[in-house]
C-alpha cells in the first residue's frame, strides 16, 4: 500500500483536529478558573457554552466540559456564584471528595459573578481539597438549590499539576506517529 505525501499530511491533519476535541475536559492547573452551569438537585455541572454570564475577579473560562481532567498533585477549589444557596458534592474519579460548605440559602446576590467576592463570603458555598499525584477526573453534583431556583452557575480552580489527555487522545497521538512513520518509509522507497 503506497501513500502520497499529500495523503499523509491530510491524514495527520485530520488526526490533529480529532485530538483537539478529545482535550475538551483537560483544564489548566495554573490556578485559573473554569465556570460551569448546573440544573436542579441531582444534576451534574457542565460547560456553559455561552449559557453563563462572564465572571469577574478573575474572568473564568467557560468552554471546557466535565469531567474536568488533569494530573499531578493540586489544590481544587469549587465556589457557588450568583445566588447564594447552591451546594455541591465533588467527585474525583467517581469517588466522593466531600461537599462544599453549607450556604445561607437566603437567595442573596451580594457577589453575583465576582469569584473573589464569593470565595471570601461565607454566605456562598465553597470547598477546597488537596489532591495527590496521579490522574484526576472531576465531576460536581448539585445537592442543594438556591432558594428554590432550578439552575445556576459556579466555578472551579485547580492549582498545580498538568492537564491529562483522555485515553482517546493518546491513541490518536500514536496513530499520528504511525502515519508519519509510514510517510518517512514511503519517501525512502521513492
What can you see in these coordinates?
The chain is α+β, with helices and mostly antiparallel strands. It has two domains: 1-24 and 166-190; 27-164, Galactose-binding domain-like (Jelly Rolls, Sandwich). It is built from three helices and nine strands, in the order αββββββαβββα. A five-stranded antiparallel β-sheet has the order 2-1-9-4-7. It is elongated, with a radius of gyration of 21 Å. The relative contact order is 0.27. The model is unreliable at 12-24 and 162-170 (pLDDT under 50).
Key terms for this structure?
single chain, 190 residues, alpha+beta, Jelly Rolls, 2 domains, 5-stranded antiparallel beta sheet, 4-stranded antiparallel beta sheet, 3 helices, 25% helix, 30% strand, elongated
For the biggest β-sheet, the strand order reads 2-1-9-4-7
Full CATH superfamily name of the largest domain? Galactose-binding domain-like
| Number of separate helices | 3
Rg over alpha carbons: 21 Å
CATH class of the largest domain: Mainly Beta
Tally of structural domains: 2
CATH architecture of the largest domain: Sandwich
Please report the total strand number as a whole number. 9
Low-confidence stretches: 12-24, 162-170
DSSP strand content: 25-35%
Distance between the termini: 13 Å
Assembly state of the chains shown = single chain
Map the helices and strands:
Elements: H1 5-22, E1 30-38, E2 46-47, E3 68-71, E4 74-80, E5 87-92, E6 95-99, H2 115-120, E7 126-131, E8 135-144, E9 152-159, H3 167-189
Antiparallel strand pairs: 1-2, 1-9, 3-8, 4-7, 4-9, 5-6, 5-8
Amino acid at each position: 500500500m503506497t501513500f502520497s505525501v499529500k495523503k499523509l499530511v491530510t491524514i495527520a491533519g485530520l488526526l490533529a483536529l480529532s485530538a483537539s476535541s478529545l482535550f475538551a475536559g483537560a483544564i489548566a492547573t495554573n490556578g485559573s478558573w473554569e465556570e460551569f452551569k448546573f440544573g436542579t438537585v441531582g444534576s451534574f455541572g457542565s460547560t456553559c457554552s455561552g449559557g453563563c454570564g462572564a465572571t469577574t475577579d478573575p474572568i473564568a473560562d467557560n468552554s471546557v466540559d466535565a469531567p474536568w481532567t488533569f494530573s499531578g498533585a493540586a489544590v481544587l477549589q469549587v465556589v457557588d456564584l450568583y445566588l447564594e444557596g447552591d451546594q455541591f458534592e465533588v467527585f474525583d474519579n467517581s469517588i466522593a471528595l466531600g461537599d462544599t460548605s453549607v450556604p445561607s440559602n437566603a437567595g442573596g446576590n451580594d457577589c453575583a459573578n465576582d469569584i473573589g467576592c464569593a470565595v471570601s463570603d461565607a454566605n456562598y458555598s465553597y470547598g477546597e481539597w488537596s489532591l495527590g499525584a496521579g490522574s484526576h477526573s472531576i465531576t460536581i453534583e448539585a445537592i442543594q438549590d438556591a432558594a428554590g431556583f432550578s439552575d445556576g452557575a459556579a466555578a472551579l480552580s485547580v492549582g498545580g499539576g498538568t492537564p491529562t489527555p483522555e485515553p482517546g487522545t493518546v491513541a490518536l497521538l500514536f496513530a499520528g506517529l504511525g502515519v508519519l512513520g509510514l510517510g518517512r518509509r514511503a519517501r525512502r522507497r521513492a
